[in-house]
Predict the 3D structure of the following.
Amino acid sequence: MARETFRENIKALEKDIICEGEMVCTAISRSVKALKDLDIAEAQKIVSDDIHINKKRWEIEEKCINLLATQQPVATNLRELIAVLSISTDLERMGDHAEGIAKIVIMHEDKPLVKPLVDIPKMAEKASDMLTRSLEAFVNRDEKTARAICDEDDEVDLLYDQVYRELLSFMTENPTIITRATYLLWAAHNLERIADRVTNICERIVFLVTGTMDEIKVSKY
Amino acid sequence: MNNNIIIKNLSLTYGNKQVLENINQQIEEKKITAIIGPSGCGKSTLLRCINRMNDLIPETRVEGEILFHEKNIYAHDIDVTEIRRKIGMVFQKPNPFPKSIFDNVAYGLRINGTKDKKKVSETVETTLHDCGLLKEVKDRLYTSAMELSGGQQQRLCIARALAIEPEIILMDEPCSALDPSSTFKIEELMMKLKKRYTVIIVTHNMQQAARVSDTTGFLYLGKLIEYGNTKKLFIKPKEKLTENYISGNFG
């Protein structure tokens, strides 16, 4: 087959995306664990490690720009590069959300959590699972799975609603914890946004397979 | 959609060799239509059918119809010279006449009976201006066209084709012999021309088709495999064969 080098370059970019995705999944689970344990030292490390995700994104973007400039991709190849560029940006932003959770840990200073975490780890687990499967769908060009994952965003939204209601009732009962309860609300919001960004990835997969750009899932928030 | 060329069930054979097979295509007015495809697929032959240039090749048999303003250009009562006047052609290699720049552009007008010198002079000037050549040659209109660069010669050939006010311009790989700068000048010219003319271009350069055309047809082994909006064809072609060709997997 002609253009083998070009095909290899695109395959390498797929691997880069998987790598960036794994980095993001790790950042999410580390940040939620740090929140659960209120581990400030780990949180500081998570904040400083975010640069690696950012660098990965720039590396991917540079490779895409080089291929766009030199290879004049069209049709599937063009859609692949556009999808990679877009997915890489969404992943990088997810990394920022994980970093945001770590910063919330640091903001707690020496104060305890207002309540033990139950739904926030569930949100993190669900969002990470959606992310991992969306990247598998990307590699497999699996439009059906991508669309199905988008629907799962509702589960994360429901958990977020639950966290919101619960924290609101806590704040009403005890106004002295409003600041820390708001921190937890921000953490949950970061996770809700991560799941939303997974739906962006899924929309890119649909574009990659069908050539149609469409908002599959409109965010509730 | 206004179509001033409608190709219906067009097939062409050279002797025993079938070069075009049952082509059906509607060419939109005042748009650029690109025809792409690998070497030998019949794209230049198809283009040459549109102003009956293939008539000049022995043992050519054409079946089907090409309607120009709803009249079949292959009908017996058609004036072929008139067809070629209305449907001009620019070739791969610039082919100016060994005459002055002025005479090259004036040639078509004169053989078509325009005797008014002022009118000839005005038309030459306007046409050279429209082709972006006037500034470059205004001080040497009466020097030989052969002294121009390749890109200038090709623009002169376009000016020559435009001087007799055709409706359609056929371009057979007009930039294949030109450097990138001259190529972009011709492409810019094409974009300007489509405001007044229908342009049909055959090109080996897929990026050129993607850059300039509104509609693209992919021809393979004499068959029109896919024909439609250029952006759609280059982003999500309907046919696998088109995808493979434009992605450089064969051809």
The helical segments of chain A are 4-37, 40-71, 75-107, 119-140, 143-173, 178-210. The radius of gyration of chain A is 19 Å. The mean pLDDT of chain A is 95.
